[in-house]
User: Which sequence fits this backbone?
């Protein structure tokens, strides 16, 4: 019946009650042309060994929170509340231009796992100061980086070296979503953590997720990212709810 009424409005057989452009359908555009690459935990760790700072921490932020690269590059220290362990995503950087986030649904508070918060504090202690108080300021300009050169010069070459193909920033976002599934996060919580606007994207059937539910689901992903791992891996340590073994997770 939904499709019937949609067509009736599109064919002007009944009054149009929405923007007419919403009825336009282009054949094939809703189908993904290529299945997205999803990284396993071991693949992620292998890749992490190949990246130096600041790209290494950028990647950890992407995989711990599922942020888009434009949102990672636009983070300021004022967006992070270490006391309440939350992060506010409010802006994005595209080709050096700072703007609002993609949609109103993208602007939301995200939980910070204790171990992940400690990692960010460690990064802040070695991060260069900038007038904009950026979390990842360029060492050349002091302004946000451009995403494309990082992907072309660092992210993709690492994937090719390990035989994983052309991975990119969005690979990490797809992987985050997949890991939420694997750890049993409810669909409604996933939708809030991914900050998707539409039901077709993450099947938002469970309503608004509480912060504690988001925190629990997110922490499971952070623990996959940060450890514990076997000796010889790039990241070691044991994460618990209240503490993180104080070990430098960032290489000098």
Assistant:
């Amino acid at each position: 019946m939904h499709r019937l009424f949609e067509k009736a409005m599109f064919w002007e057989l009944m009054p149009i009650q929405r923007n007419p452009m919403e009825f336009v359908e282009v054949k094939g555009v809703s189908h993904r042309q290529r299945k997205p690459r999803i990284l396993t935990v071991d693949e992620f760790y292998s890749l992490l060994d190949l990246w130096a700072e600041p790209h290494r921490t950028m990647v950890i932020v992407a995989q711990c929170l599922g942020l888009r690269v434009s949102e990672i590059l636009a983070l300021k220290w004022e967006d992070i509340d270490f006391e309440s362990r939350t992060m506010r995503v409010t802006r994005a950087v595209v080709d050096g231009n700072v703007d609002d986030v993609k949609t109103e649904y993208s602007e939301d508070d995200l939980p910070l796992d204790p171990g992940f918060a400690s990692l960010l504090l460690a990064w802040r202690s070695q991060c260069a100061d900038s007038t904009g108080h950026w979390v990842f300021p360029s060492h050349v300009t002091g302004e946000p980086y451009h995403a494309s050169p990082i992907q072309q010069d660092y992210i993709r070459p690492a994937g090719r070296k390990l035989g994983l193909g052309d991975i990119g920033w969005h690979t990490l976002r797809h992987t985050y979503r997949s890991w939420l599934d694997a750890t049993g996060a409810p669909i409604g919580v996933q939708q809030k953590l991914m900050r998707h606007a539409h039901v077709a994207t993450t099947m938002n059937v469970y309503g608004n997720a509480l912060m504690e539910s988001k925190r629990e689901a997110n922490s499971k992903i952070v623990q996959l990212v940060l450890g514990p791992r076997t000796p010889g891996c790039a990241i070691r340590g044991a994460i618990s709810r209240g503490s993180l073994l104080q070990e430098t997770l960032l290489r000098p």
Observations:
- The first helix runs from residue 2 to 10.
- The beta strands are 80-81, 86-88, 91-94, 97-100, 109-111.
